[in-house]
Amino acid sequence: MELKITNNCICSQLSVKLSCDGFQTVEEIDPTILSKSGSLCLVNSGEPIYGHSNFSFTYAWSNSFPFKTLLSQVACS
Q: Which PANTHER family match (predicted)?
């Protein structure tokens, strides 16, 4: 499965955190891409997802997981 996060804003999004309670994968995901702590997942080590860009990663499970964005910090210059 592939998760694609799209930032449709002109501003960067930092410290993107997703709800991932119950998330499972049979293949390890690089923790700089997605790190899980309890029911929260931090995307891209908290680094920016720049405006009008995508960030994606793949995971291996039989069903897609309903990730939900819980928090991000907006950074505009």
A: BETA-1,3-N-ACETYLGLUCOSAMINYLTRANSFERASE FAMILY PROTEIN, PROTEIN TAPETUM DETERMINANT 1-LIKE-RELATED
Token representation of residue 56? 């994606």
Backbone angles phi, psi at 46, to 5 degrees: 80, 0
Q: What is the count of structural domains for the chain?
A: 1
CB hemisphere CA count around 45 (13 angstroms): 4
47: nearest Cα among 60, 28, 31: 31
Domain that holds residue 49: 2-75
Low-confidence ranges of the chain (pLDDT < 70): none
pLDDT tens by residue, 49-64: 999 999 999 999 999 9
